Amino acid sequence: MKTIKISAFLIAVLLLGELLFISCKNGNMPATETSDSSETDELVSTTTENNEVTPMSYRYKNASFSQNGLRINFGVLNEINLFEPNTDISFYVTYSGAQCKGKSATIIISGEELSSSSTIRFDMDGDEYVGSFKASRNGVYRLTLLVDDLDVNLSFRIGVVPRIKTANDSFIFSCQPCVARLYTHRAQVLGQTASLERQINSVLSTIEYMGFNGIREDAIYWMDMQPNQDDKLNLDLFDDLLKQANAHNQALIYIIGTPPFWAYKEEYKDDTDVCYNVCPELEYWEEFCKEIAIHTRDVERGKLIWQIWNEPDGEFFYGTAEEFCDRLVVGARTIRKYDPDAYIIGPGLVAPTGLNSDWKWYKDTVIMAKTVKMLIDEGSLDTYAHHLHYPFNNDFFDYMADGIGLAERLSGLVNNGAFNTESGVCSNDKQWCAEENVAKALYFRTKGYKDFTVFSFADGSPDMEDGWSMFNGYLQPNKSAIAYAALLNMVGQATEYEVIASDRALFATVFYDGEKSVVTVYYDGEEQTPRGELFLPEGKSYKAYDLYGNKKRMSASSVVAASDCIYLVYEGKISASEFSYNLGYDS
């Protein structure tokens, strides 16, 4: 372990965003004690002038190299990979092995918000290099490490966006981070494997930083809680998940289902071609629901939301639609009986467009929707839920009309604060994903819903991302994460809204939070759809921001809708009636 002293100097100021680099070698700042390991991540402590040791920030390892005795770790000195604009973004490189002695290395910092990339050169003396930079504009930045004469090329991403105040309870902006899978070792946060606690903190701190106020989880399954019939139901992991979620200001939407084998309906136990969740015997299911209701009945309403099953009309229930409805009735009534104040929502229905499918797992959505309606009417369920993974295009609007919309009409369901508990898009074009996710979230925020769960939060791979996620396996953000944080910054505190226009050519809404009004402007992004124009009130000043929350120059009199949402911020309250618009359709 080596003690290194720190000093700073200015390297560069760039055209689009100020980028300040600080080199940390041989100076007068307090010493930083570190240890080197390619396998673990460690806390960093600072020694003050009075020789007192106080915690600083821990190393967040984002990339590593280990070969033939050469070991290099590369990451940030922070709990997460998100940073405030215009603050120090501290990074580190630790290295050991004879191959690096006498070598020099280059760190390249790049990003779309910069007019050009910038570099830092350093000699690999000692066993560590620490530096920092500042960025003034929201966005994704990449740090790349190259070592002279060695085949070492490490890189990772960080995000710059303001810390967002947790969204208020007018609406639940939730995500699906799979924290429960960390508890049951079905997933891990890469680079943060020193402890389970650290992985959980990394995920939940990232979510809290972005301003979310809910997470949807399921992977501490019934089969984990009670693997054998004679076992007592063990809710210890669930209890800690609930505690940690609430401590980070997140409501926990928890999906119940996934029975252990011993609880399967007897006639299904010998089946081999089964899907994810097998229909349980009613008596076992009822007892399970009774026990969880009794166990959590002192939890404040809204801190925990039970969701009974996931996509039962699709691949996540093995059994008939009628069998599921029987279990939905028993589950909802049992939880309500033993916890009258519980918040209980229906299953996330697939509800395919046209409510028909030749998919072998599809089951009748309408029968399920009618059962949900009956349970809402009697007070056993609070509301219903559905999923929608289409992009914001023709398929999306067809689904709203003839998927869940048709199910609503045939069953009598009325949107009384419905939940969209899964909605995402999949593409390697992260600009497009950012636009689509923001558009869909704003759409449901203004359609009477209570929740929108963006899918998905992170995947488990460092490089080849799955297309759905806002973060990779190291929790390094892409554009979708920055755009969604900007969305929550703009409208997460709104207590009321007023629609100006709701047409595929122009979606424009005024959100008001008690201090300022934020007008959101976008359209569906389809080539065949005209781009509507919003005419702004005369004499009213505003500030314009782009999809990522960066200031944007706009015409003073009107805004033409684009697929990437534009935010107009007015001080005080402004009314929808003060605006006019032209949808652009041929007369």
Task: Please report the number of helical segments.
Answer: 11
Highest CATH level, the class of the largest domain: Alpha Beta
**Poorly predicted parts:** 1-49, 51-56
Alpha carbon gap, first and last residue: 76 Å
Helix percentage range = 10-25%
Question: Can you give the mean pLDDT?
Answer: 90
Radius of gyration equals: 26 Å
Oligomeric assembly: single chain
| Apparent shape | globular
Strand residues, percent: 25-35%
Total number of domains = 3
3D architecture notes:
- This protein is an alpha/beta fold and 587 residues long.
- The protein has 3 domains: 3-160, Immunoglobulin-like (Sandwich), CATH 2.60.40.1930; 172-426, TIM Barrel; 499-582, Sandwich (Immunoglobulin-like), CATH 2.60.40.
- Helix content is 22%, strand content 28%.
- It is built from 11 helices and 30 strands.
- The strands form 6 sheets. Strands 15-16-17-18-19-20-21-22 form an 8-stranded parallel barrel, surrounded by 4 helices. A 5-stranded antiparallel beta sheet has the order 2-12-9-7-6, with no helix packed on it.
- Helix 7 links the parallel strand 19 (343-349) and strand 20 (383-387).
